[in-house]
Design a protein that fits this description.
heterodimer; A: 1032 residues; mainly beta; 22-stranded antiparallel beta barrel; 8 helices; B: 495 residues; mainly alpha; two-stranded antiparallel ribbon; globular
Chain lengths: 1032, 495
């Protein structure tokens, strides 16, 4: 929860005209303005208290009214704090009304309604639209990082890619994405790639059960509530234009061997394994080529946004159009990019006095392309491992190709520039989303609403794999050295069309009433039907004419090869939910707060015996500072809060007994066909999957306790929460008896996990003197996760390398996704040490000595243990906004502490380039005992490259994520041009990173099993940009 | 006021809100065009398709004959180095641990086959149709085949026959007695013999003879020699004949030939490319692994992974003039010298090289497709007529009232073919004849996956296999995962 409690002041200036006065009517005229914007307020109500006399301000905010001397004038306007004034003199007054949004009376959007922030007893984090707009993120989640306490965001550098977002830890492995609610319509985290940052009014993160239980089975991972901007009635049209141009570059490169060092190391490795000297003459090699310098390019980042909002008597509107374009720094903007066009119209119309309609419509077009990333065959991985002794460009006469090839690396790894040249893909997404909502004011306090929210997405994609030459002996070459096609080799093109359509239909009634004036009730009751559908058709062909992307299309490719996987395929799915929900909020004099919510959810994914589930939550709050006995001058406001409740998670597909008639089922690894003699394959059939009629949801119990505190004249605000989550019925693929056969095991409700932690938010807001304004915000997020039951099962993941090794596990007694491998305890210096140590097969002096964890005197797989945890112990965000006269300075710093990284980009093959650490290798007894630096040899009988803490590094970091310096032009000169505000600024994103991690970027996103594993992850770029914000 | 109107609106609201049909969240897999069990067992074709599915897991058992050789004195694991195919290396070195991937795969494949067979048993009563009896004969034959593979490899195993196990049956079964498993195998084969036709128009389908031969073998493995002799006699007098040219048996043209009693059919007609489950398709992976590394030239052979290499000991066991030697072991260097015109080059097997290769199953040019390593078409000759003759010979020699005349006759039919003359006939009787038959099995069936099981069955393992330990290595360890999950008792010596 984040709010500012600004100094309580209403500016009132009155020109005094002393008049004779006695029971006469005084004429008062004046202008009503908004205090925050200084804009005149049209349609404000000016009334004489106790009489029927009232008027409204005109378009310029002016009014005139007659009032008896000594009477009280009341000036009110929706969304503003009303102002009362006793009139003793006639004359002209200037009234600046305080915007309620900046006050404690701020309203927060919660499930199926809004609530005054003072009345909330649950746990909510809020990020304001202004903060998001200032950051100008490509994706809205980036603005949550470090700004919303309780939310952990691990960003990625890949243009437009989805970051890892965890709300209050990792309850489950099946999917940790919080649900995203945009203007009441349920969407997914993936959809946040489509929202223009300038359209966002606010983002609220619902964290505890009291706030999420009304989303029932979807609320388990927390809820991100995005509210987009809308107009205000009787508001003069306000136009905003903002523009930003930037240049992105990589922050640093990884130390690998130069050509001479590489050749020397290969000589050593070859000799150590009984081979010959490979590079007899080192003196001619020089430093060679650092391929990282070749693949990283400067790439542009640009955004333009034009918005307009306003309103008349019975309607309000917000319209916007925006463009965001981000190029990728790996290979440049030609090869990876994310370009987005947005158009949005949000309309609120009073169809009649009682009936209101809201129509929000957004259209988004996204064009994107990508290069292979964060995998064994990624461009970055190739750049780090490719031969440094060859030049960039091909200088061998008569051979094919623009870039050079290696004569020593003959499989899997190739020139990253050739790979970039050969990466051809393009995806086009057309998406429209929005809602249609009708509100009918049935009674004074009873409002019924019907809302239809939808998202329609069409994605068209194409990828082309050309024939290529990576070297004469290279097994991946599909061309010969002279450019002719190898026998049996083909290029291929893949096309896919996927459509998604989701809708949510919700009908609900809000009824607010008071009992005995001091007992306030706000209630909601309703139902929702939701459907998520998707379907896709894809196909591949080979033999694209001219081996060219220009001709890459199924219609032009001539060859079919279904047995090589170039086939046609399709899928479709549908998910449906039916839900009933209610919430009752109660307060007594705004001092004692209580809330209760319930949801009954049915999910099509669950078994017949478990279709519906009930979710309840309740919360209590106490505004201690409103008590008579509370007399602490230093503290202005103190609220204690507590909540408990149940939410769920339905990240599972229906489990049924499927029959497969495929000759080979790739996802299952089983066939059902058989070929009798030379007869064509006989089609067989078999059961491919088990069913589980008892399948239900993951049930989360969450306890939350916290307080909100404002102190030192409300210059400081502190919100703190402690939470505990117990998750049971974790959706888990059980370890079934092997004698059940090979049909796919169904998901069952097996595991339990426990998560606890603190979220803190400390705000500071002050004006120092006349010219200085300071606001600062500090967030602190921590979550401790533990898997408490898995029924002896465990899930492994985080695979890398060839042969494939697995690093991460989800296992009882450990934190989810922890690194699992061998612990190292040094290096064997001599044979005597090896003889004295626990038996370690094939070890020779110079090899890594592994720890005998189970003490059985033998180093075996049983000695593997926890060697790291990719998720941070805590994260912190600190923002500072300084304003001095027309200048403003903003900075944002984000820190993540305790997250480990597993370095998995090294291929460890004989001829591949190596991480510089190898220079400190063991070279003889006593040379080093650092287990990260064993002897170097081509053969590795000791398996020094096995999964061990040798590759685990501390990934803790502190990033200066954003630095901005802005200047706002003097308004006086602009007014004449019809411009009300112009701000120019310069911005640096990811300015500096302080970390011990040796790689590009310690932020490595992924799922639970892949976060923190650096297979050559796409690093975030440093972005220099200039921007302009104009308001008309 | 407008109270009536309000009541009406509220009523409508409530109806639309809470009267919604809960069917909205029901799921029918057909929505996603998925076929489920509910759609099946409605026509004879459904039963036939399901039965074909029972055959498939036999193809996944490619490693059983490989282990049957590597675990014996016939071959070594080979491979690229000590860490290449560790499961096979462990078996070769008799450093076998329960967590052995190949053994686990065999266990899973057999039980997949058994569950597929049981699924037909479960749905047997749903439909009557022409040919049902014979079809179920195949099902029972296959179930017996899978249980026999299990009992040979692991001893007593969990035994169930009535239905396909579901999730609720996990961890419910313990190991049955070895004798009970054998009884079930016998019962299935007796039922199969009663139901199966003598021949089947589709090659590779189980026949009455295949069931009789397998039952004879099952009897032999239990030392029930009288029953074995009687049962095998049915096959001996059947329509089979020994192929004159021994080498032709193992060519593509020799598949399902006159000597074939039962063959596991492999095919390159539906190639697959799933490297995460390389043995689960329709190709025979045992062929790829035994190939010569980096082989070039114009020989009929294709290259492979130098695994399952015959030992010099096996090569030396053949007498001069035995045509089976060149068919069983290929001395690559001698072959290269003898066929200089083929311009052969190859890589010497980098680990445990013997210079010899498993000629019967060597990969051959043009016999695979798609992902070439995974799709070799070579059938596994599971039961050959020669095997039946030798089994019958052994049974006649070892039964309570031996018939050595018959035993000798059957043995010599095999030897006559091997040498192409009648000059190499055995004249032994009694124990000497028994030994002669055992030795003949090694020569006749070399590299065909019989050796290890024969040595164990006949009590010769301790004297013939280096590293073999009595009261332990008669069987392989129960897969560790199954011990962990299902709480099965581990075989002695493997804990």
């Amino acid at each position: 929860m984040k709010f500012k409690f600004t100094l309580f002041c209403v500016g009132l200036l009155m020109a005094c005209f002393i008049q004779q006065a006695a029971a006469q009517t005084l004429q008062v005229s004046g202008t009503v303005k908004s205090k925050s914007t200084a804009e005149p307020l049209a349609g404000a109500t000016v009334s004489v208290v106790g009489t029927a006399k009232a008027t409204q301000t005109d378009a310029k905010g002016n009014f005139t009214i007659g009032i008896t001397k000594g009477g009280t004038l009341s000036i009110s306007y929706t969304g503003f704090k009303s102002y009362k004034y006793v009139v003793n003199q006639a004359g002209t007054i200037q009234v600046s009304l305080e915007d309620l949004n900046t006050l404690m009376n701020e309203v927060v959007v919660v499930g199926y309604g809004t609530q005054k922030i003072t009345k909330i007893s649950g746990a909510i984090s809020t990020v304001k639209g202004a903060d998001i707009e200032r950051l100008k993120p490509v994706r809205a989640e980036d603005a949550l990082q470090g700004r919303a306490s309780g939310v952990t965001v691990v960003s990625t550098g890949s243009p437009g890619a989805k970051p890892t977002v965890l709300i209050r830890g990792i309850p489950s492995y099946t999917g940790t994405d919080p649900v995203v609610v945009v203007d009441g319509s349920i969407q997914s985290l993936d959809d946040l790639n489509s929202i223009n940052a300038a359209d966002i009014e606010s983002v609220n993160v619902l964290k505890d059960a009291a706030t999420t239980a009304i989303y029932g089975v979807k609320g388990g991972n927390g809820v991100i509530v995005v509210t987009t901007k809308s107009g205000k009635k009787n508001q003069k049209t306000e136009v905003n234009y903002s523009s930003n141009f930037g240049n992105q570059q990589v922050l640093n490169t990884i130390g690998v061997l130069n050509a001479t060092e590489y050749a020397a190391m290969l000589n050593e490795g070859s000799v150590a394994s009984g081979g010959a000297i490979l590079f007899p003459n080192l003196s001619t090699l020089g430093v060679g080529t650092n391929w990282q310098d070749q693949i990283f390019k400067n790439a542009g980042l640009a955004s333009h946004s034009l918005t307009a909002r306003g309103g008349s008597d019975n309607m309000a509107y917000f319209v916007s159009g925006a463009y965001t374009g981000q190029g990728g720094i790996v290979g440049g903007a030609d090869k990876s990019y994310f370009n987005r066009y947005n158009a949005t119209a949000n309309l609120n119309v009073d169809l009649s006095k009682r009936l209101k309609a809201t129509v929000n419509t957004s259209f988004v077009n996204i064009r994107s392309a990508s290069v292979p990333e964060n995998a064994i065959n990624s461009v970055i991985s190739n750049a780090l491992n490719f031969d440094p002794t060859v030049p960039v460009y091909n200088n061998v006469a008569g051979t094919y190709g623009k870039y050079s090839v290696s004569n020593t690396i003959l499989s899997e790894i190739f020139n990253p520039l050739t790979q970039l040249d050969d990466s051809h893909n393009q995806y086009n997404t057309n998406k429209s989303y929005g809602k249609l909502e009708l509100q009918y004011q049935l009674l004074k306090n009873l409002k019924v609403s019907s809302r239809y929210g939808y998202t329609n997405t069409d994605v068209t994609g194409k990828a082309f794999t050309p024939l290529s030459f990576y070297g004469t002996g290279h097994i991946n070459s599909t061309l010969n050295a002279d450019g002719t096609t190898k026998v049996g080799a083909h290029n291929n093109v893949y096309e896919v069309k996927t459509s998604y359509y989701n809708y949510t239909l919700e009908n609900f009634a809000n009824y607010n009433f008071n009992i005995n004036t001091d007992h306030h009730f706000e209630t909601v009751l309703g139902m929702a039907m939701a459907k998520v559908t998707g379907n896709s058709v894809s196909g591949s062909r080979q033999d694209v004419p001219f081996n060219s992307w220009d001709f890459a299309d199924i219609s032009s490719a001539t060859g079919t090869a279904p047995n090589s996987g170039l086939d046609v395929g399709s899928y479709q799915y549908e998910r449906r939910n039916l839900s009933y929900f209610t919430r009752i909020d109660y307060d007594y004099k705004d001092k004692y707060l209580a809330s209760f919510s319930a949801r009954r959810d049915g999910s099509f994914a669950f078994g017949a015996n478990n279709k519906f589930g009930n979710f309840f939550a309740g919360s209590l709050g106490w505004v201690v500072s409103d008590e008579e006995f509370f007399k602490v001058n230093f503290i202005d406001y103190l609220k204690l809060r507590g909540s408990f409740g149940i939410t769920g998670n339905e990240n599972v597909n229906p489990q049924f007994q499927r029959i497969s008639t495929l000759t080979y089922a790739y996802n299952l690894g089983q066939n059902a066909g058989y070929t009798f003699g030379n007869d064509p394959t006989s089609i067989g059939a078999t059961i491919a999957s088990f069913k589980n009629e008892d399948l239900g949801w993951e049930k989360q119990q969450q306890l939350n306790a916290g307080f909100d505190l404002n102190f030192a004249n409300s210059k400081f605000s502190l919100t703190a929460d402690y939470f505990e989550k117990q998750i049971s019925g974790l959706l888990f693929t059980p370890s079934l008896s092997l004698y059940l056969g090979t049909a796919a095991a169904p998901t069952a409700n097996i595991g339990t996990t426990k998560t606890s932690g603190f979220d803190l938010n400390l705000g500071y807001n002050n004006a120092v003197g006349k010219n200085w304004k300071v606001s600062s915000n500090l967030t602190f997020t921590t979550a401790k996760n533990e898997v408490t039951e898995t029924n002896n099962g465990l899930i492994t993941g985080g695979n890398y390398g060839i042969p494939n090794q697995s690093v991460t596990r989800f296992e009882k007694g450990q934190s989810p996704g922890y690194f699992y491998g061998f612990k190292t305890v040094g290096i064997f210096q001599n044979t005597a040490e090896i003889a004295a140590a626990p038996t370690q097969a094939n070890a020779v002096p110079g090899d890594i000595r592994f720890a005998d964890i189970n003490g059985d005197g033998l180093i075996s797989d049983l000695d593997r243990t926890k060697i790291g945890d990719p998720f941070p112990t805590f994260t912190m965000g600190w923002s500072l906004n300084l304003t001095y006269k027309a200048f403003d300075f903003n900075t944002f710093i984000y820190a993540s502490v305790g997250n480990d990284i597993y370095r998995a980009y090294e291929r460890n093959l004989a001829m591949t380039n190596k991480y510089r650490g190898v220079l400190a290798r063991w070279t003889g007894e006593g040379s080093t005992n650092d287990p990260r630096n064993p002897r170097y040899s081509f053969t590795d009988a000791n398996q020094n490259t096995r999964v061990s803490d040798r590759y685990v590094e501390d990934g803790s970091f502190l990033k200066i994520k954003d630095v901005q310096l802005g200047y706002t032009l003097p308004t006086t000169t602009l007014k004449r041009l019809g411009v009300s505000k112009v701000r120019l600024y310069a911005q640096v994103k990811n300015a500096f990173v302080f970390t011990k991690y040796s790689g590009f970027d310690p932020e490595i996103s992924g799922g639970i099993f892949d976060t923190g594993i650096d297979r050559g992850a796409y690093p975030q770029a440093r972005t220099w940009s200039f921007g302009l914000d104009v308001k008309f | 006021m407008h109270m009536k109107k309000y009541t009406y609106i509220i009523g409508l609201f409530l109806v639309s809100t809470f009267g919604s049909c809960t069917k909205f969240v029901d799921f029918n897999p057909q929505e996603n065009y998925e076929i489920t069990a509910d759609n099946y067992f409605k026509t004879a074709e459904d039963y036939q398709k399901m039965t074909i599915g029972v055959y498939s897991p036999m193809q996944w058992l490619w490693a059983v004959p490989v282990i049957g050789e590597i675990a014996s004195d016939n071959s070594v694991s080979g491979g690229e180095n000590a860490t290449d195919n560790i499961p096979l290396q462990q078996i070769d070195d008799y450093q076998i641990v329960a967590n052995n991937g190949q053994l686990t795969e065999i266990w899973k494949a057999c039980y997949e086959g058994i569950n597929r067979a049981n699924y037909l048993e479960e749905n047997k009563a749903k439909l009557e149709f022409t040919g049902k009896t014979a079809l179920y004969g195949e099902v029972y034959f296959l179930r017996a085949y899978y249980y026999f593979e299990l009992v040979k490899m692991f001893g007593g195993v969990p035994l169930f026959t009535t239905k396909r196990l579901s999730v609720g049956d996990s961890k419910k079964f313990q190991r049955a007695n070895k004798a009970d498993v054998y009884t079930q195998i016998e019962n299935d084969l007796i039922a199969a013999i009663a139901a199966l036709p003598l021949t089947n128009s589709q090659q590779g389908r189980a026949t009455k003879y295949a069931a009789q031969a397998l039952l004879g073998k099952v009897y032999l493995y239990q030392d029930k020699f009288t029953e074995a002799a009687a049962m095998l006699e049915n096959v001996v007098t059947g329509p089979f004949s020994l192929v004159t040219n021994y080498g032709n048996i193992f060519l593509q043209a020799g598949e399902n030939g006159s000597e074939s009693v039962f063959e596991v059919q492999y095919s390159n007609a539906s190639p697959f490319y799933d490297w995460s489950n390389p043995g689960r398709g329709q190709g025979n992976l045992a062929v790829q692994i035994c190939g010569i590394r980096n082989l070039t030239g114009t020989s009929p052979y294709a290259s492979g992974w130098s695994t399952n290499l015959p030992t010099a000991n096996l090569a030396a066991a053949f007498a001069a003039g035995d045509t089976r030697k060149a068919v069983t072991v290929l001395d690559i260097e001698a072959y290269k010298t003898a066929n200089a015109g083929m311009n052969i080059t190859y890589m010497v097997a980098p680990y445990k090289n013997t210079g010899l290769y498993n000629q019967k199953y060597l990969p051959r040019v043009g016999q695979t497709s798609g992902q070439v390593e995974l799709n070799y078409l070579n059938n596994y000759r599971a039961i050959r007529y020669a095997d039946v003759l030798l089994m019958a010979a052994e049974a006649n020699n070892r039964m309570a009232t031996p018939n050595d005349v018959k035993a000798l006759q059957y043995l010599n039919r095999v030897r006559d073919r091997a040498f192409g003359d009648i000059l190499h006939r055995s004249t032994a009787t009694g124990t000497a004849l028994k030994t002669a038959i055992w030795d003949e099995r090694r020569l006749e069936l070399g590299m065909e996956g019989q050796r290890f099981f024969d040595l164990v069955r006949t009590g010769q393992a301790a004297s013939k296999i280096t590293g073999w330990v009595a009261n332990k290595n008669e069987v392989f360890p129960i897969p560790q995962a199954e011990v962990d999950i299902s709480g099965l008792t581990q075989n002695p010596g493997y804990n």
